[in-house]
From TrEMBL:
GO terms for cellular component: chloroplast; plastid membrane. This is Major facilitator superfamily (MFS) profile domain-containing protein. It comes from Gossypium tomentosum. Keywords: Chloroplast, Membrane, Plastid, Transit peptide, Transmembrane, Transmembrane helix. Residues 156-560 form the Major facilitator superfamily (MFS) profile domain. GO terms for molecular function: phosphate transmembrane transporter activity. It is a multi-pass membrane protein. Belongs to the major facilitator superfamily. Sodium/anion cotransporter (TC 2.A.1.14) family. It comes from the Eukaryota. The keyword Isomerase does not apply. CDD domains: MFS_SLC17A9_like. It is found in: Membrane; Plastid, Chloroplast. It holds the Pfam family MFS_1. The keyword Chloroplast applies.
Amino acid sequence: MAMSGLVSNRNFGHFICSGILCRGEQAILLHRGERLSVAVVHGNIVKPISVSPNGRQLILLSLHHSDKSHRDYPQQRSKGSFACCSFSSSSPGGWLEAGDKDKIVENRSSAFYKSEEYDITEAKLDSLPSPDENNEAILVERDIPWWQSFPKRWVIVLLCFAAFLLCNMDRVNMSIAILPMSKEFNWNSATVGLIQSSFFWGYLLTQILGGIWADKIGGKLVLGFGVVWWSVATILTPITAKIGLPFLLIMRAFMGIGEGVAMPAMNNLLSKWIPVSERSRSLALVYSGMYLGSVTGLAFSPILIHKFGWPSVFYSFGSLGSIWFALWLRKAYSSPEEDPELSKEEKKLIMGGSISKEPVKVIPWRLILSKAPVWALIISHFCHNWGTFILLTWMPTYYNQVLKFNLTESGLLCVLPWLTMAAFANIGGWIADTLVSRGLSITAVRKIMQSIGFLGPAFFLTQLSYVRTPAMAVLCMACSQGSDAFSQSGLYSNHQDIGPRYAGVLLGLSNTAGVLAGVFGTAATGYILQRGSWDDVFKVSVALYIIGTLVWNLFSTGEKILD
């Protein structure tokens, strides 16, 4: 350990410092920018001793005090200051003796610098002086683990990322398991489409409700409820499938109810926790959890099915929700104001760049629905999700029936487009935040990113009609979904732009339209395939992508229109 400073005096009555001279004392701690200065006062001479706390932990190892009366250690927490221990004295001039050691109790205080909080443990007496010795307070610095100084707002983002990872793992496993299930239960394409779309029946019901609940009671409770609900429904799926088709359809709808609250609740949480300068990248990271969930589900489902049978996919994936929920209860809070461990510097950063934290009591529906940018969001979300959900639910079947891949190959090759999506979502987020920070208007950034998210998939889906090899088909799928991921910095970030206080409700509204696209698109694909071809399926998606591009660029905005 490296000694960072030695403070000596003969009359150490109080040692509480917050950037000013300690009352009646000859030792001071001064906060100067990013540095902490320890100054020792000798008569009229002040001798500063520099201490650099940034990334370090300061520990008061020993205190030799000139008072043998009662000592107490109240905490003092102050933004940008060093909170230390206090020694109250009623009879100055005394000395610590061996019997006084048990009078000093261990206490914990805090120091705040920038957005980090460092714990300081003090009052460890190593030795006691005689009346002829000097009193000493020794400060020593040491490294602290990086996770203790990790910004709390990004802990919330990572937990939301993990929730969305589980969300899509539990959703896409059916797209792989449906192949052996349809053989076992003799389901045709129309029945498969009905099963795939039944998820959206429940998913549709809780979009707006989830947004209202999150805006009124907080995103922590709503998202926690959703994960537990859909995890239980996932575990029960094999049981209901063996009982009968109607029971399976009901259970898939129940699973949709749980997953339906996830996006509005997450949007509410991030609108409270994330400043606008980090909005695109934080949302991109959370949504990339969905893509990586698809990767994980599509990669591991065939392996589990091959070794343990199709029910194992639902049992194993569903059980992971309990682990997440335990972490969520310990670490998550609905808003920065509710988190007792949040540093004052980080709280100031969040509150300065975010929205009013007053809970929403009344939803101004007439005002919301009278705004053209809100309808641009709704229509664009519908157009976007039609193509996205078709790829999500029908891609393994396309690989199996058209490209003649077996079950394992279908699952593994489905991974590549989702990996591309996860990567480009985060790339798009960083590009969008960089453009905003360099002065480009939020409106222009949202329009650019969403245009890529529409026209990219439209172009690459049209190329599927001309490719002749499975490798090129997979490449087109990957490029289509990679460009689609730029939507996370387009329409998916726009709810917090135009109405941050109602972010949950706005996402619930637009995602309701997106879910309707999933219901109709997934079911319609099964119908089209019975009478037409995959080219017809892709043509419908391309047409909707073009309509979405026009509506978005004509009517969307990045400015706040709802207070």
